[in-house]
Amino acid sequence: MKFMKSVLAVLVCFLLISSCRTPKNKKQQLPYKNSSLPVEKRVNDLLERMTLDEKVAQMNMLSLNYLKFDKEGKVNEKYLDSLFKGGSIGTLESPFIGVDEISKLSEAADNYMRKKTRLGIPPIQIAECLHGQLAFGATIFPQTIAQGSTWNPELIKKMGAVIAQEASLSGVDQALSPIFDLARDPRFGRAEESFGEDPFLVAEMGKAFVIGMQGDRTAHLLPV
Fold first, then answer.
1. Is the pLDDT of residue 3 over 90?
2. 75 and 127 share a domain?
């Protein structure tokens, strides 16, 4: 009799452990988190799970500058909770601070979104990167209008590769550059961010910038 009770006790414990593990396994197998599925299927699955508020939040942008470090140099959890309030945000702006600090803030925000929000949607971190990442410790190149005066697409391609590498190392996912606008009106407030007034020049320099940042897939790795 005692033997039977012991066997039953073991079986009950086994069933309880199994039932506790099942939801976790199912959560890991959600279609939108399954990298082996087609992108369209994953996107549709995620959209069906999102509430209206969560979809609206994906159109919002906040700055990492609101986050603070504690005395030990770690990102303060209190500020993460205060800024994100347990929800995902579509875009995070890279602040004008040191590249090492940006990297820590970016990692902390990304971990928060993935682990402490309902759906675990990571944010997109952006930076302008027009002539270098706007951060202490990054390489700063001449402004775009000066780049255009070189008439040297190959040089701009190499510059783009350097900017992309440095920005990526600090957590930047998306660069808001280059600018393909033509600087033909002196009233244009961002004339210095254009390669010039000639469409051919702007197109060639802009194309070289993009290839440098994203990688030339028709050639070998670009030397930096």
1. no
2. yes
pLDDT at residue 71 in the model:
84
**Per-residue three-class SS string for the chain:** CHHHHHHHHHHHHHHHHHHHHHHHHHHHCCHHHCCCCCHHHHHHHHHHHCCHHHHHHCCCEEEHHHCCECCCCCECHHHHHHHHCCCCCCEEECCCCEHHHHHHHHHHHHHHHHHHCCCCCCCEEEECCCCCCCCECCCCCCCHHHHHCCCCHHHHHHHHHHHHHHHHHCCCCEECCCCCCCCCCCCCCCHHHCCCCCHHHHHHHHHHHHHHHHCCCCCCCCCC
Could you read off the pLDDT of 135-187 as tens digits, one per residue? 999 999 999 999 999 999 999 999 999 999 999 999 999 999 999 999 999 89
- pTM for the model: 0.78
In this structure, are 114 and 44 located in the same domain?
Answer: no
Q: Is residue 162 part of a domain?
A: yes
pLDDT at 200: 97
Phi-psi region of 86 (alpha: psi -120 to 50; beta: other; left: phi over 0): left
One domain, residues 75 and 174: yes
d(CA 83, CA 160): 32
Does residue 62 lie within any of the structural domains? yes
Greater confidence, 30 or 3?
Answer: 30
Average pLDDT over residues 99-127: 94
β-pair partners for 175:
127
Question: Which domain does 45 fall in, by range?
Answer: 1-49
